[in-house]
Amino acid sequence: MADAYRREWGRVLAATVRVTRDLDLAEECAQDAYAKALGAWERDGVPDRPGAWLTTVARNRATDLLRRETVLRRTLPLLVTDDVTAGPEDCPAPSAVADDRLRLIFTCCHPALAREAQVALTLRLLCGLSTAEVARAFLVPEPTMAARITRAKKKIAAARIPYRVPAAADLPERVGAVLEVVHLVYTTGHTAPVGAGLARHDLGDSAIRLARMLHELVPGDGDVAGLLALLLLTDARRETRTTTDGRLALMEEQDRSRWDRTRIAEGTALLTEALSGRPPSRYAVQAAIAAVHAEARTWQDTDWTEICGLYDVLRDLWPSPVVDLNRAVAVGMRDGPGAGLAALDPLLDEPALAAYGYLSAARADFLRRLQRWDEALTAYEEALILTANDVERAFLSARIDEARAHLG
Amino acid sequence: MARYLILIYGDEQAWDALPPEELEARHAAHVAFAASAGPAILGGAQLQPAGTATSLRVGADGRPAPTDGPFLETKEVLGGYYVVEAPDLDAAIALASRLREATAGLGGVEIRPLVERN
């Protein structure tokens, strides 16, 4: 049931919105359908197509409510939709359902909404996360998140953000905004900003589900294929990122036999599709870097020359201080810790990295390899201040102890 | 259909310093915009400088007290507006994007939906 909830929620909601033309009412109807399913499925078994069952129940409920609601005065205008006359009793054709989910995701990620509102709406409406869960993931109090979601929904209705797939001419730009949201959901889950666990797998799963959905709905788009490839190739390492007793395991120490070969194979296949785009998207290049790691049998086998070259390509496509940082680390792996340290040095003046703990952690690691323990200690201590993730904190504390031991 | 107010904001001093050719080009752009957007435009005007504004707030005696200047003192001020009709926000954004002020710098435009009462 919980599985059906997450998997089908976006589909059910998106199809219901087209009947209600009101996001809140559609959410209510979808919730009702899930509540009904709880009893009915226990009694009669899970239907062959649970999504279609839920959609039909939710849309019938919406039709009922709308019939009654006509006497009530609405405070917000109805969503702007293209005129589609699908009877709620009809079981919608699969392609129409697909279009509804696309409409919903483009509405949630409309450029007239702030990025944080786009992310919140996408997780809430397409992935079925509760407001409390979204609030936890982004470290804001639940009432703040609830207000953010309410305000965004109100803007969609009042400013008439259309419930529609954008015109072909606008599609690449609009898909780009959606991909940024999906990527942000994944990275937030990859290393949880705070708390006991290293990762938040529910966010990672939601992001992969969204990327799969987009890949199915916008086939042949190299950017979408690139993002899905990146997420799969990164996620293949999920189980090995911490040891059985919950400590952080760097890629160097990970048990590569436990990397998820199915995900790697799927990601690598997608990469071919993604790299056919001219020029390739940043996600495709990032996925290519992840693929080089996935292909190396051991840490020592890693082709750092290839990785440095890919970071050069990435830097041209998508200049960012974080890319510079990752490139500097790769240079250090290729040419030795002294070269890595020299490559990191210019980044110390970069304001965007001033509070970015991974810069301190990368410097600390090269200084440790050079046995410059005094400086390594300072850098590890800086990195420790800049993370609130318990697993990362434990790792850094252990390295601080190591440095102190060497200093006597 | 819905109505939107398109507010054109900018730095008045910078506007004043524009060379005559650019002022002429901006004016011509509005004429062209009005001609091409046609019936979508329900109204609009260029405003006199913010220095000509008079604001009213309630005074100590409970009656409106006039003061010299715009309601909000900001570097970028309202310089003009249009009221347009559009089916949705995407159409309104497309329309407003055709304004020279949306692309030429020294300010920008804001799109506000009007409350529709049926």
Report on the structure:
The complex is a heterodimer of chains A (408) and B (118). Chain A is mainly α. Chain A has helices at residues 2-20, 23-44, 50-69, 94-108, 115-126, 131-137, 142-158, 171-190, 201-217, 222-235, 261-275, 282-295, 304-317, 321-335, 337-344, 357-369, 373-385, 390-407; strands at 194-195, 388-389. Helices cover 67% and strands 1% of the residues of chain A. With 118 residues, chain B is an alpha+beta fold. In chain B, strands 2-5-1-6 form a 4-stranded antiparallel beta sheet. In chain B, β3 and β4 form a beta hairpin. The radius of gyration of chain B is 16 Å and the shape is flat. The model of chain B has no long low-confidence stretch (mean pLDDT 92).
Helix and strand topology:
The complex is a heterodimer of chains A (408) and B (118).
Chain A: H1 2-20, H2 23-44, H3 50-69, H4 94-108, H5 115-126, H6 131-137, H7 142-158, H8 171-190, E1 194-195, H9 201-217, H10 222-235, H11 261-275, H12 282-295, H13 304-317, H14 321-335, H15 337-344, H16 357-369, H17 373-385, E2 388-389, H18 390-407
Parallel strand pairs in A: 1-2
Helix pairs in contact in A: 1-2, 1-3, 1-4, 2-3, 4-5, 5-7, 5-8, 6-7, 8-9, 8-10, 9-10, 10-11, 10-12, 11-12, 12-13, 13-14, 14-15, 15-16, 16-17, 17-18
Chain B: E1 2-11, H1 12-16, H2 20-37, E2 41-46, E3 54-58, E4 64-68, E5 76-86, H3 89-97, E6 107-113
Antiparallel strand pairs in B: 1-5, 1-6, 2-5, 3-4
